[in-house]
Amino acid sequence: MVEWCPRAQSVMSNQLVVFTLDAQHYALPLTRVQRVVRMVEVTPLPKAPEIVLGVIDLQGNIIPVMSMRKRFGLTEPETSLSDQLIVADTATRSVALVVNSVTGIVERASEEVTDAEKIVPGAQYVEGMTRLEDGILFIHDLDRFLSKKEEHELERLLGHAAGKR
Fold it and tell me: CA 46 to CA 37: how far, in whole Å?
């Protein structure tokens, strides 16, 4: 099931895992990414926040699956077996993000990354931007992906799913 495990490679703070959603490039800091796996069946989680597609069991761990498309206001097509899941760490939990494909790792010096707030004040979910040969790369901020209300609701639901009360 595991396709790629970046933590097995050397970890540098300026390395970014690049992935695509539709035609746009996004990235996550390599230090946040546990692994990339092929799309698997997602079990719905009743009453979950809208951006939570459900959960998967990954080596005995229940991981919530998030829709970046819903968070960014993009059209949400049916998931495809060609999609991939990026399993990454937020400040509070591991999550799986549905993406079209992971295209690789790029390294950028700090001066090559522009703080998103400098370009679009109040930019949510994006911590910075940098250039690629074929466009702009948006660097995603996982710690702001869920609102406090969504985080609380997800925690409650996952606690119930695990039999905690």
Answer: 24
